[in-house]
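lol forgot to send this yesterday, sorry. struct tokens for the thing we talked abt
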């Protein structure tokens, strides 16, 4: 039994392909970017993890004999669309929300979930401030941006870089990333040079890098553009043959990056949230995800699977009452695909946080672009 209701085009009800939404199932709402301008490939991986876990829960007897059902809504990277989806799913009686990849979208969804008293386990968004005030309703699996990006900054410093350019666009997420890097690098001898991509063409970035004497360029911009054009321009400029290009937000994780950039896709370090070696559970899930996706699963697919694993365990233990479910975050102890998941309160983070999932800095191997090299762990 699949137990999945997918509605990609718009946040309105659709018929079930598995358990019917007739009151006998336990329903979870899933927020996923499945259309542009959302990062569709990330959304596809996130959804694959969510769906696989729901299928396994139902194969094992569901939630105390009741099937688990996933009601999927496409957010398309649009915060307003996500808010509307949260409102609609709450009216339809879901017991909790899961998912979302884009931080600004998750921020909007978390605010609505908090206002409505609807538990939300955020799978992948990392922005530190998901809600303005501390909330009991929201928990998160992905590491906070400040945690992961400080580990990335340590890697950049250890690689010998002190003059670091960031190509950036206007966004809460990119501004937050720039601030984290600047605040962390400055006391350690690093300088962050900000390149505003609203004012610069990708080819003009090369001149700025040469003029500023930067030895590293970090891509804090959207995908596929302008990040692909920036990489192509820099790689073709012989003056910048030794510069390191990095992408802390994880753009090179997905196959589309390699398809668009070919040989230029390699040796671009990025953050991903996987352990160096998967546990037996992780390895089993990886094989199932590979079959479902017809390609190697990204860390985002594991985040989706772990989200449902946590919610299913909480539902079995505490029942389907929303308030009781939200109250269980500090008592969660679930073996996920990437380690044991527990939630706690962390300084300056307003939601219940898994502290911490494994964090790696990896890149695509120039000798074998389909293989990832682990460069640093934190």
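and heres what i got for the seq, position by position
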């Amino acid at each position: 039994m699949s137990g999945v209701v997918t509605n990609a085009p718009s946040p309105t009800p659709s018929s079930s392909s598995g358990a019917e939404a007739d009151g006998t199932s336990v329903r979870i709402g899933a927020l996923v970017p499945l259309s542009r301008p959302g990062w569709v490939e990330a959304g596809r991986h996130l959804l694959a993890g969510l769906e696989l876990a729901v299928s396994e829960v139902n194969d094992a007897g569901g939630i105390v004999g009741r099937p688990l059902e996933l009601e999927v809504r496409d957010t398309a990277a649009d915060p307003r669309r996500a808010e509307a989806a949260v409102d609609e799913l709450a009216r339809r009686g879901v017991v909790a929300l899961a998912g979302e990849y884009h931080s600004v979208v998750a921020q909007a969804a978390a605010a609505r979930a908090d206002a409505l008293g609807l538990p939300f386990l955020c799978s992948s968004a990392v922005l530190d401030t998901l809600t303005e005030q501390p909330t009991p309703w929201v928990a998160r699996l992905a590491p906070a941006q400040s945690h992961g990006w400080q580990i990335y900054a340590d890697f950049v410093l250890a690689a010998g870089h002190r003059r670091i350019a960031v190509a950036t666009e206007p966004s809460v997420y990119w501004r937050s990333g720039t601030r984290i890097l600047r605040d962390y690098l400055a006391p350690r001898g690093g300088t962050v040079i900000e390149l505003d991509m609203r004012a610069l063409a990708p080819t003009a970035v090369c001149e700025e890098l040469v003029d500023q004497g930067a030895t590293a360029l970090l891509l804090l911009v959207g995908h596929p553009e302008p990040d692909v054009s920036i990489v192509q321009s820099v790689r073709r400029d012989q003056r910048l043959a030794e510069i390191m290009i990095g992408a802390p937000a994880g753009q090179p994780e997905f196959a589309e990056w390699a398809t668009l950039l070919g040989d230029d896709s390699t040796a671009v370090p990025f953050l991903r949230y996987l352990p160096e070696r998967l546990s037996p559970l992780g390895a089993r899930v990886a094989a199932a995800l590979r079959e479902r996706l017809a390609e190697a699963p990204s860390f985002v697919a594991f985040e989706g699977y772990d989200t449902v694993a946590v919610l299913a365990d909480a539902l079995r233990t505490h029942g389907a009452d929303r308030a009781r479910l939200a109250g269980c975050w500090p008592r969660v102890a679930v073996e996920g695909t990437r380690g044991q998941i527990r939630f706690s309160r962390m300084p300056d983070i307003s939601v219940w946080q898994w502290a911490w999932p494994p964090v790696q800095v990896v890149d695509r191997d120039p000798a074998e672009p389909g293989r990832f090299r682990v460069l640093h762990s934190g």
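DSSP finds eleven helices and 17 strands in the chain. anyway ping me if u want another try
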